[in-house]
Amino acid sequence: MATIKVPAISSMATIKVPATVPSPAEDCDQLRKAFQGWGTNERLIISILAHRTAAQRRAIRATYAEAYGEELLKSLEDEISGDFERAVLLWTLDPADRDAQLANEALRGWDRSNRVLIEIACTRHSSELFDAKRAYHLRYKRSLEEDVAKYTTGDFRKLLIPLVSSYRYEGIEVSRKLAKSDAKMLYEKITEKAYSHEELIWIITTRSKAQLIATINHYKNEYGKSVIKDLKNDRKNEFVAALRAIVRCTCYPQKYLEKIIRLAIKGQTTDANSLTRVVTTRAEVDLKVIEATYYKKNNVPLEQAIKGETSGDHKKMLIALLGYDDA
Amino acid sequence: MATIKVPAISSMATIKVPATVPSPAEDCDQLRKAFQGWGTNERLIISILAHRTAAQRRAIRATYAEAYGEELLKSLEDEISGDFERAVLLWTLDPADRDAQLANEALRGWDRSNRVLIEIACTRHSSELFDAKRAYHLRYKRSLEEDVAKYTTGDFRKLLIPLVSSYRYEGIEVSRKLAKSDAKMLYEKITEKAYSHEELIWIITTRSKAQLIATINHYKNEYGKSVIKDLKNDRKNEFVAALRAIVRCTCYPQKYLEKIIRLAIKGQTTDANSLTRVVTTRAEVDLKVIEATYYKKNNVPLEQAIKGETSGDHKKMLIALLGYDDA
């Protein structure tokens, strides 16, 4: 039998896993109980799934399918609904498979203001993006690149195909010479408003994170303003907004995601979808940093803000993923 | 201790591995003996390395480095030379690392007639190309995409960046509708001689192998001539020749590689580099099919042709990789 590799939980993660974790069979047994009888025991579902790592959830899914001849995700779909269902399903999925699904949803309902694809392509580690692309093959029997080309058009297509295709180097080495020439190129193209110029697209979609940060630092030193600010001159241009999102997502992912949460909460109606997406995709990665950034920016604990904007089991699930219920 | 996963040898491979393989420590001991004393025992080197799988060679490299505090590849470099050295070094490398090195060599000495990058991007399985890109990160501290952009220009750059970036779907499912519309697009662009049109580039660099084959079959049925033939009208255009190579490499890799070997052998002077590259990169993959294709095309066994064109230890090494010496 294959042993399950359990990676250590990141110190930036918020989820809490009990010191002694029940076996997958015990967890499945409890989940099955939560589904049976009058009504569903949502509390029990949360108390199990929200406190297991990706590897543990994978083992639960496999054990469940074998024991009951049905996919756990299917059972969950039958038992729960609404924002709570969305949160539990996204969370229970394998991260790579979840990203594949989110990317596919973003493409099928494509509009130029949609930033989910950029979020997935830029906030993930290169190897995680590759895993998502592999999951996309399995799920949809074609490549993510092909669907980007199918659903997007014009300059967005020219931008998004390389964005999801590139396998960015993840090392910390940077070339100052390159930072200088890339900054010059960016400055020229932005000044000329040649936003879809192939060199500009090429730099922001292909360079490593460390190299891109070096470039935007050099840009600021050399030209006096930040790339992000210079990309704000064309406020209504969705393409320029996408470029800005790519730079922010790639260089400052936690700041970017804090803003997504902030906007999701601050609007007249809460954007439950974005809130759920960021919490479920980052709870095991860096939500602690996003939480700290949120507090710094808003002077309100994220936990409290989420409690004020959500309700019922959806609220309980998000708070559990934030690590604030009793594991 | 981690156990070494030994994949089964492909039935299309030519290398022969003895029924009982010595331990990596024993192999290293023998290799060390081959390097010592007066002269090098080339025969002993071949009798070991040419008869080990990639996983076995990896174990030998690791054991050698640990036992002698020196990389096996370094010792080999010191002991042997010329075409024999090239063959042994390429063969001894991990396939992904070897592809990374070959791609880098092709880029550093870039000229528009160089097809090695295309060979690597298109004849490898998508996951192998990805492994090569990961090896490229480790070896060169930047991405293959970045180096393609650095060393190539113009239309070639527009073609080769997506070619090495795409993670092509490898499944066998094809869409007839897509084959039809892609064939129409290719026909239009080829007829207009708009060879670097983004749609044309996009189709041949992103579609899965099965889908591309369906497209070129549909092209032939619908328009009466093959894509390859239609791409021969501009014989002297290197860019068009590159497009042709991509289609042939992707759809008919063994036929393509047979031709590389044929041309390497047929020229006034033997192209030892190409011959060595194809034999070492395919001996564990599909050289048996390439060999059969060669015989069909030339009525001469490949073994005999290689024996006539090479000499000394280089010849012995290639013949051993073809599976014709006593393992």
Describe what this molecule looks like in 3D.
The structure is a homodimer of 327-residue chains. By secondary structure, chain A is an all-alpha fold. The first copy, chain A, has a domain of 76 residues: Annexin (Annexin V, domain 1, Orthogonal Bundle). Helices cover 69% and strands 0% of the residues of chain A. Chain A has 20 helices and no strands. At the A-B interface, α8, α9, α10 and α12 of A face α8, α9, α10 and α12 of B. Chains A, B: One of its GO terms (molecular function) is calcium ion binding. Chains A, B: Keywords: Annexin, Calcium, Calcium/phospholipid-binding, Metal-binding, Repeat. Chains A, B: One of its GO terms (cellular component) is plasma membrane. Chains A, B: It holds the Pfam family Annexin.
Q: Output the structural class of chain A.
A: mainly alpha
Beginning-to-end CA distance, first to last residue of chain A: 29 Å
Q: Name the CATH class of the domain at 176-251 in chain A.
A: Mainly Alpha
Oligomer: homodimer
Which runs of chain A of at least 5 residues are low in confidence (pLDDT < 50)?
A: 1-5
List the helices and strands of chain A in order.
HHHHHHHHHHHHHHHHHHHH
Q: Look up the CATH topology of the domain at 176-251 in chain A.
A: Annexin V, domain 1
Strand content of chain A: under 5%
Number of strands of chain A: 0
- The 3D shape of chain A can be described as elongated
In CATH, what is the homologous superfamily of the domain at 176-251 in chain A? Annexin
Q: How much is the radius of gyration of chain A in Å?
A: 21 Å
Quick one: which chains have the greatest interface?
A: A-B, 28 and 28 residues
The overall pLDDT average of chain A reads 94
Largest sheet of chain A: none
Number of helices of chain A: 20
CATH architecture of the domain at 176-251 in chain A: Orthogonal Bundle
Helix content of chain A: 55-70%
